[in-house]
Every structure is written in structure tokens, then in C-alpha cells.
Amino acid sequence: FMIGLQGTKELSDSKIEKRTIQKGLLLEFHKDSERSLLAVVERPDGKKNWVVTDQNGILSSIKPQQVTYVVPGTMDFDCSRIAEFLEKAQDLLDPTILECAWMELSEKDKSVTVEEFADIVYGSKESLESYCAHFLLSRDIVYFVKVESRGSSIYQPRPSAQVDELLRRKLAKEAADKELEEFVHLLKSAKALPLGSKPPKNSWLMEEKVKQKIESLQAYAVDVCNDEQRRMAGNILKAMGFARTSSAALKLLINVGYFPVHVNLDLFRYDVQTTYTEKVLSVAEELLVDCPDSDKHVRKDLSNLRVYAIDVDEADELDDALSATRLPDGRIKVWIHVADPTCFLQPRSILDREAMHRGTSIFLPTATFPMFPERLAMNAMSLQQGTDCRSVSVSVILHPDGSIAEYSIENSVIKPTYMLTYEGATELLYMNLEEEKDLRILQEAASIRAQWRRSQGSIDTAMIEPRIKVANPDDPEPNINLYVEDQTNPAMQLVSEMMILCGEAVAAFGSDNNIPLPYRGHPQSNTAVSAFAYLPEGPARSVANISVLRAAEMDFRKPVAHGVLGIPGYVQFTSPIRRYVDLLAHYQVKAFLRGESPPYSAGDLEGMTFIASMHVKVARKLHSNSLRYWLLEYLRRQPKGRKYRALLLKFIKDRMATLLLVDVGIQVTTVVAAGKVGDEASVVVEMVHPRDDILSVTEIAQDTEE
């Protein structure tokens, strides 16, 4: 409907009447940032404030600046009539009035007071009509703007272009509010469902508007959100009655079934690539179908050797294996056979670049994310039992003292005889079977190598390390399998020594042939190895040794002495399927074996190693965080009051010490009453919260243990 302008006087010249607050007046005031209420003035409260009775019958004291409007003509207003007044006002509050009035007033560019507006649209300036005019104008965000306020208010019509833009924004906000309301309804419905009936995660990602909101909550939960995601997540949490915190967002996402209870937030926090692009997968599949061996004519047939592949029982990628024999002159010859993934790859190819930008395979208690597509990494590239496998074999003849007498590197074909776990290999060693003499020769080689390295100043860093495998991580109570590895285990020491021997031989090969390689070094510590000889062998001494280590070094032109390992040079070479820097060494060595120039200069290697190492750091952080989470979850499930054997590793301050829970492999901090580094103690777990990374233990006094 159209509204005719009432009266003929110039509205903008109207005098603004200043009203004072007094007893019996009806007024509107700001209760808080979101609510305005009607109230009747009762009496003064001090020099400036007033006691009022609001529309809900509540008595409160208000400041003058809280007053937003004094309703005219309401002297001695009875507060019991406020409800009736509001009910009558509802009949007059038609929002379309604003648009009609704006159209007429904007044509004449006239400003109006509240009462004049009431006169124009309602034909009356009485208290009810004036209040309705104030209500509409003060809450209007489209048609009018308040330009002056001196006890009363003047409203000016906005320009047409501004109104159009504000209308567009208003409609957009209304649409967004409706979307939010619908999304909150979805969340509440999902939250109410039993655990096994929650909607699947992908159902939240099918519709773009829903996807945006759920991803905003996800970004908020992992604390990596942009401003828009933070705003949206905050609105959702508020509408759901949750606090605006990342932990509240996480709890909500778990409650609706979007995240499993034990979700690994680091995968989102560090933006870990857990899948491959179609292009990369396509290239990998092509290689699986057709990959001729360019080195076939120069591969040495070593398939007659007895080959031992020893690794953890859940190893997915098998990079290396070992052989040994005793020569007629009594010396030992060992072979370290390494998988040959470069026969599938070209430097700078799509798969190579993908591997560089991953840097390493990621090993978590819940999953493995290989550096190469899974079928390629775990099948074609890996060594397989009883199958002819392409490999690069590093052979070394040892002097009786354990130093290298001769070495060679060649392309080969091997047929792995045994796939053994560390536990299985240790058992075979203890059985001392005649038919496994090659394994005993390997153990002897490892023993004399360890002695030789010690004579060269090597430092013992062997620890007790936990390993966890979680079979069904998406379940609320998944199965946790804990293995505690003692790195002094005979089979682990055997493998470790052979890997170090291989690294030394490859460094020597690179040095002798002037090949740029990623040479690793470690300067000798300023503290003598003997400084910690008083500590018992094992974790306590290892922790002390590690505490004084200097920073590692790398060179890409020549070997650097590795003081920690006690060898003149070292190149990581034995894990080319799972470590990109090992793969770089393979490219360089294999090119030399073919009589070609190395594909990469020392500068190239340095740049690519830097890129890969950044991703390796993230992978290590992911692994350590996830391992600790599941160790804490394991401890949370143990019977309350269970006693744990602990080893005192070091003192931090006074009697505050770091302990190692020997049967779990986790380090804890607590106060100990007595004892020295290397001593054993007993502790109980007082409190453990995996999600908040909280673990609190208390020592049990020796005389109360029984």
C-alpha cells in the first residue's frame, strides 16, 4: 500500500524535543547486547541511575546510556499494562511500511523524527504509534539511517543504490540463517542417533553448502581455519549450545559421527597427503603392467645365496635383506641386498617428484602412507620371499678386526629365502641350528663390527622403543597391540650393524669414484665417551650420551666423519622405497654403474634433500604424536592402581626426574624420593587423558610396595 505524507510543514526543520527521565514514564532500554525491553520508571537509584520494572515484571537498576527510547505521553504508566501495550503494537509493526515510507521520503530527500514518521505512516503521534515508529526505524538496516541524536532521533532515507545493496545483503543473510538452521537440525538429528546408525562421513560432503559448514567445523577443530571458517564454525557451535572452542568443535564432530572417537587431527593439521592423484596412480599402474629392466644385461645372479630379510612383523615395504659366507681364508663376506626401485623410475619423472614432495613413507599405529602408490611400493618394488627380485647388492669383506677390507656394489638378482621378524630371527640365533650357519656368520660379523666401531669412538644410543599396532582405529574401543622393542635384541643389533656397514661402504664407493651423494656426518661430542661409563649400560647411559650430541652435518661432495657411529663416512642407502634421500643415492650410484654421469649435481642433491627433509620432519612429528596418543590410550585402559616398573633416566631439577616405564616404553616425569640415575622404581598412573596429552604418575615408596 502507498502512504500519503501527512501535514505540510518541513519535517527536517522540526525541533527535536529533549525528554528527561522521571517516575512513571514508559521507556525502552538495552538489557544486553541482544535484547531491548520496555519498562516503567519506578524511582532514582543514586545520582544517575534509575530503578525500573521491565515487561517481565523484573526490578532492575539501569544507567541513562542504556535508555534507547522514552515513549511520549506515558506519564504515570502502569507497568501491568506493558503486555497489553506490546500486544497492540504487534498489530501495527508491518515491515512493509518502511519501504513505502522510504519511497515517498527519498523522493523529497526529507529527514524525519520518530514522531513525525509515526504521523506520516499511522496518522498519529500518540504513544503507541510513536513507539511502533521507533521500533521499526531503530531496527531497520536497509531503508533509513540515524543521522542525529539529542534526546530524540532523526532518520534519513538512504540512497537507492545503497538500499539495493543492503537489500541484497539482507536477503543473503536470511538465506544463510535458514541454511544454518537446516544444518543445525541435521547435526542435532545425527547427534541423537545411536553410535552404529550415524550418517557416514561422505554423506556430509555431497552437498556443497553442507560440506562448507562441516569443513569449517573441521578446520576449527584442528585450529587451521581462515576467518570465514572461524565465523561459520562459531555460529554453528553457538546455535548448538556449545562453547566456541576447538575441543567443542571436535566433540561435536565425534558426536555426529563425522570423526571417529580416536581421529588423528594431525593428518588435517599438517595437511598430510594420504591419497594419490589419478595421474600418479595411472603412471604407477602402467609400470606394473610393463617395466622392462634396463640393467638386466649387467645384473649378477645371486639367487643361489641364502638370503635373510629381517624386519618388524607388520612391515609393508621390504627394502633390504642379508647374506653371508666365510671365505677360505677365514674372513667374512657379507651382502646387503637393497630393493631396486630406480629400475621403475626416471629422475624428475612424475613418480619421482611425488616421492620427493612426500619425503618418506609415514608409519602410524593406525595406518601406513607409502611414499609410492601402494601396489608399486608393496609389491613390485619390495623384495618378495621365494621370488627373483631385482636388487642392488653391496658386498663387503671384513678384516678380522671388523674394518672394511674390500667392497663392491652391483646390480643383482636375489631370491629371498627367509622373511623373519626380529623375534623370529632372535629365536633362530638362540637355537644355533647347523643349517642356519649363514645367520650365525652374520651375527659374528655384526659383533666384530660393533667392537670395531666402539674402538673408533662410536656412542651407544640403544633404547627401549615402543611399537603399537591398532587394528580397527575407527572403533570407539579399538584393539591396541603393544610391542616394546629392546634395541639390544640380537637380531635388531645384527640388522643395525649391517645397515651401518652398508652406509659406510656406499660412502667409500662415492668417495673413491667422486660421486655426489647425500653424505651424513656427526661431529664427535666434546664430552668423552668414558664420561658416562659409570652409568649402567642401556637406556640411562644412552639418554646421557644423546644429551651431549652435537648437531648432525651433511655434505654432498665428499664423506663426513660420523662420530656417533664411529665410521669415516655414511650414506643412507638401505630404504629407497620409504626414504627419498636413499632413493637419491640409488640414482647416483646406479648411473655410475651404467657408466653414465650422475643425474644430479651436489647442488641439486642439497636442494632436493632440503625439500624432502621438511616432509620427513612432519612425518616424524606425526609418528611420535600418534604413538604417544595410543600409548596414553593403552595406559588409560589398564586397571587402576597397576604398578609399573620404571627406570630413572635423568634428573631435571632437585628430585624431579624423567623415568622410563620399561614395560610400556614411554617416558614420564615425576618426583622421586630417593635413588640415582640408572636405578629402578615403581610407579602408578594417577591420571591419563590421551586427547589432552596428560599423563601423571606417582612413585610408590619401596617399603609400601608389598
From TrEMBL:
<dbReference type="Pfam" id="PF23161">
    <property type="entry name" value="HTH_RNase_II"/>
</dbReference>
<dbReference type="Pfam" id="PF23163">
    <property type="entry name" value="CSD_RNase_II"/>
</dbReference>
<dbReference type="GO" id="GO:0006402">
    <property type="term" value="P:mRNA catabolic process"/>
</dbReference>
<dbReference type="InterPro" id="IPR012340">
    <property type="entry name" value="NA-bd_OB-fold"/>
</dbReference>
<dbReference type="InterPro" id="IPR001900">
    <property type="entry name" value="RNase_II/R"/>
</dbReference>
<dbReference type="Pfam" id="PF25255">
    <property type="entry name" value="WHD_RNase_II"/>
</dbReference>
<protein>
    <recommendedName>
        <fullName>RNB domain-containing protein</fullName>
    </recommendedName>
</protein>
<feature type="domain" description="RNB">
    <location>
        <begin position="299"/>
        <end position="595"/>
    </location>
</feature>
<dbReference type="InterPro" id="IPR057324">
    <property type="entry name" value="WH_RNase_II"/>
</dbReference>
<dbReference type="GO" id="GO:0000932">
    <property type="term" value="C:P-body"/>
</dbReference>
<dbReference type="GO" id="GO:0000175">
    <property type="term" value="F:3'-5'-RNA exonuclease activity"/>
</dbReference>
<dbReference type="InterPro" id="IPR056403">
    <property type="entry name" value="RNase_II_barrel"/>
</dbReference>
<dbReference type="InterPro" id="IPR050180">
    <property type="entry name" value="RNR_Ribonuclease"/>
</dbReference>
<dbReference type="Pfam" id="PF00773">
    <property type="entry name" value="RNB"/>
</dbReference>
<dbReference type="InterPro" id="IPR056404">
    <property type="entry name" value="HTH_RNase_II"/>
</dbReference>
<dbReference type="GO" id="GO:0003723">
    <property type="term" value="F:RNA binding"/>
</dbReference>
